[in-house]
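Quick check before the chapter quiz. The format below is the same one you will see on the exam, so make sure you can read both the input and the output lines.
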Amino acid sequence: MASSMRIISKDEAFRLYPMKDAVEATEAAFVAYSRGGCETPLRTCLQVGDHGSTLFMPASTGESVGVKIVSVRGGNRARGLPTVPALYCDVDASTGAVSGLLDGVALTYLRTGAASGVAAKHLARANAKTVLIIGCGMQGRAALEAIKAARPGIEKAIFVDNTKEARDAIASWASQRLGLATVDGGSGFEAGLPQQPRQTSSSPRLLPASPSSMARQCLRGPWFPV
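Here is the expected output.
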């Protein structure tokens, strides 16, 4: 019997698989993993010269098997390409034939964001109304979308990032897409964060000492009264 292989693009993946479904599926996957219901070998990482790294992440439940291929290419931003391009290859468990290819950028957005949604569902206070997002790139958006899907009662988001452009962009997106009130939390330094010099390609700049210290200081800041 001839097999057919389906190819799902990024736009199609987002259309077919809303974040709410991703949160539910990720929660079920965490449960299956904790019960020994799936096999997830350590990922293999290859350093590709000076270009960056490429990682291979296989997994199987016995009924399904697949591998996610993820690359990290810092130079892609200048090319107008994703910094972390990716692809998921699904394999028919019974025949071993490749049954589908899924855009991995969409998968990374949905799966990584969904983990934050699962955490918020079980760990956030029942009456929580405000969420703090530290780092306003693509994964900041994914986490916020998933948290809102898991906890519809969230009404306001505070954004902390080194650049105002990133904070403004995610605030506009959150207001229009998720209907949230937004607060510009600045770079984090305004909350009295410890700083350390970090050398960039052109000149040194000051960055928060660590994400954990940033989170602790921001939670003590003026946005979260005791």
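If your answer matched, good. Confidence is low (pLDDT under 50) at residues 193-210.
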